[in-house]
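Dear colleagues,

As part of the handover before I leave the project, I'm documenting each prediction I ran so the next person doesn't have to rerun anything. This entry is a single chain, and its sequence is reproduced below.
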Amino acid sequence: MPVTTPQKPKPMIEPRKQDPLHGITLKMVVTRLEQKYGWQELSRRITIKCFSHEPSISSSLKFLRKTPWARAKVEALYLQNKWPEDRVTRKPDAEANSSEKRDSTETNKKGFTKE
C-alpha cells in the first residue's frame, strides 16, 4: 500500500482589485474633462496653473506627469463622472472595417486579391 503524504493547503489567491482607469490614458482623461467642463471650469474645480494660465492639453500632460498630487486630483474628478466607453479593449470599428474589406475582395485564379 503506497504511503501518501498530506498535501499542503494551497494559499487563497486574493482577487486583484481592478484599476478603474485601466486602459485609459492621461491624455484621454484630460481631453474628456476639457471637452466636458472647459478650461475655465476645470481651473475652478482643480486649482492648478496648467488649467488657468494659457491652458493646453500638452502643457497639462507635462505638468500632471511630473506632479502626482495634481494627477490624483484630475483622475479623481474623472472618476466622479460617467463616461460612455471607459474600457478600451478593442476597436470594433476597425474590426468591422477589416472584415468588410475582406468580404468585398475577390481572389483571382493565381490567388491574388482584387477589389
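The radius of gyration is 25 Å. The first strand starts at residue 106 and ends at 107.

All the best with the project,
I.
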